[in-house]
Structure formats: structure tokens, C-alpha cells
Input
Amino acid sequence: MLEPGNNDELPPIPGKRYFTIGEVSELCAVKPHVLRYWEQEFPQLKPVKRRGNRRYYQRQDVLIIRQIRSLLYDDGFTIGGARQRLTGDQAKEDVSQSQQIIKQLRIELEQVLKILRR
Output
């Protein structure tokens, strides 16, 4: 799971519904070919594929990618170890991801409310 200290080095996730592989690459500091490889290795990672087999990632996918990145690069897990960790901790991660999404939505809604009050 991403530690609060690791979140500071990655840019915040914008309030969009879908992200291209290039955008996710920048948001997670991982090259696109690595993202495509991780899709094969981690069953939790399933971007929507549309016209021309283009990938569109959702916010949940970006959070999972950041988590995978943290496990592999920061914590020193192997691909297999990270896969097991994600599978074993899925319930805890779902709660944490939900909390992150709720926090982000709340911030965005407060910004919209400020704009509407002007």
C-alpha cells in the first residue's frame, strides 16, 4: 500500500473518469510498456479497452498501479510476491481505496461548491 510519504512524490490524480495509458504513465511514474506488462501479471488491473484496443484506465486502476509500484519499487517485492500481497490484502485495500476516493471526491465537491457560491 502506498505510504503517505510516497504519495508526495507522485502527482495528484485529477478528477477525470478515464485516463489514457500516457496519462497513467505520468501519474504513476511508470513507462507504458511496464503498465501493459503489469496488466498480464496482475488480475486486479483491467483497463477498459475501446476502439482500436486503446486502453482507458479508471481512478481505481490508477490507485492499484500506484500500489503495485510501491510494492515492487519501494518495498522490494517480486512480481509474484506483489501479486500475493494484493490478493491477500484485497479487503483492506478496498477500504483504503474507497477512503481515498471519498476524500478526493469531497475535495472536488468543495471546490465546485466554492465556484457555485461566487
Notes: The chain is about 65% helix and 5% strand. The longest helix spans residues 90-117. Residues 1-7 have pLDDT under 50 and may be disordered. The domain at 4-117 is CATH 1.10.1660.10 (Multidrug-efflux Transporter Regulator; Chain: A; Domain 2).
